[in-house]
Design brief:
Helix content of chain A: under 10%
Distance between the termini of chain B: 31 Å
Order of helices and strands of chain A: EEEEEEEEEEE
Shape of chain B: globular
Largest sheet of chain A: 6 strands, mixed
Strand content of chain A: over 45%
Radius of gyration of chain A: 13 Å
Number of strands of chain B: 11
Distance between the termini of chain A: 40 Å
Oligomer: heterodimer
């Protein structure tokens, strides 16, 4: 079973700061999904990356997929309190998804 | 709102008891997935149903079972509950069977076993 390691586990920053969180595996990803989960809610898909070296942008969020498809990063520019939440990476395994344990981000104003 | 509904929102019960969690997928989605989320294990896949048939099992205990009904809603049955079963249980739905497709998660059921 493929294991996804996310780092850092926790991140607490001030509004306006930039940050990067990471998702790594020892195995190649067929594809990778990033989800955000807010307290009391289920995860919501942010983006799917498929091709090695791919970069996708979603407003202030930039997602990169490593050339070897073994790692991915999520960069947030000028973080806002609304970005607070648990960021999860996931990869398909058969018919389901395997999730990393996530990075808990807290952005204070 | 993902379109996936789960009931109840919260459930408190005692060890040894049995509970049923219910999920209604998004309109048109044939796949239903169940996940368990705990602080130490993270979000873990339990079981997948597609159009009424079981398609895959993950880390699901023998004390747990699920089914998907003809109207596509699903139920997760947890029996002989233990303290360690306390967790968030999520249902997700998808239009297809592959994990490559986006899964839409419900708001979850928080189970507390005392």
């Amino acid at each position: 079973t493929q294991l996804l390691e996310q780092s850092p586990q926790f991140l607490s920053i001030q509004e306006g700061e930039n940050l990067t969180v990471y998702c790594n595996s020892s195995s190649v990803f067929s594809s990778l999904q990033w989800y955000r989960q807010e307290p009391g809610e289920g995860p919501v898909l942010l983006v799917t990356v498929v091709t090695g070296g791919e970069v996708k942008k979603l407003k202030r969020l930039t997602f990169q997929f490593g050339d070897a498809r073994k790692d991915s990063s999520l960069h947030i520019t000028a973080a806002q309190p609304g970005d607070t939440g648990l960021y999860l990476c996931a990869t398909p395994s058969g018919t389901a998804l395997i999730f990393g344990k996530g990075t808990t981000l807290s952005v204070s104003s | 709102d993902s379109g996936v509904t789960q009931t109840p929102k919260h459930l408190i019960t005692a060890t040894g008891q049995r509970v049923t969690l219910r999920c209604s997928p998004r309109s048109g989605d044939l796949s239903v997935y169940w996940y368990q989320q705990s602080l130490d294990q993270g979000l873990q896949f339990l079981i997948h149903y597609y159009n009424g048939e079981e398609r895959a099992k993950g880390n699901i205990l023998e004390r747990f079972s699920a089914q998907q009904f003809p109207d596509l809603h699903s139920e997760l049955n947890l029996s002989s509950l233990e303290l360690g079963d306390s967790a968030l249980y999520f249902c997700a739905s998808s239009p297809a069977t592959s994990g490559r497709w986006e899964q839409y998660f419900g708001p979850g059921t928080r189970l507390t076993v005392t």
